[in-house]
Design brief:
Layout lengths: L3 H7 L2 H20 L8 H13 L5 H10 L8 H7 L2
Length: about 80
């Protein structure tokens, strides 16, 4: 087994600090990446179909209909508004 004290003499403190900085940036970049999940293709098709059948419905009403049908409960009305023409 090698002597661990000799390994410490080879590495500068600045190197260790830079490793920690790099690892910290990498960790938070991966952790904070994402946002809202994208809507499923079937949900987008359904939103467009409901809007085509009744264009006077607001995104809130389309959201209520989708919840009443127990199809999608994770989509917000703002997301639905994004997919209505």
């Amino acid at each position: 087994m090698s002597n661990w004290k000799t390994a410490l003499a080879l590495i500068k403190p600045e190197t260790v600090i830079s490793w920690h900085r790099h690892a910290f940036k990498f960790y938070w970049r991966r952790k904070s990446k994402g946002g809202r999940p994208k809507a499923y293709y079937e949900a987008i098709v359904l939103i467009k179909r409901i809007h085509k059948e009744n264009p006077t419905l607001s995104p809130e009403k389309i959201h209520e209909r989708m919840i009443a049908l127990s199809i999608v409960d994770t989509l917000a009305p703002n997301t639905i508004a994004k997919y209505t023409p």
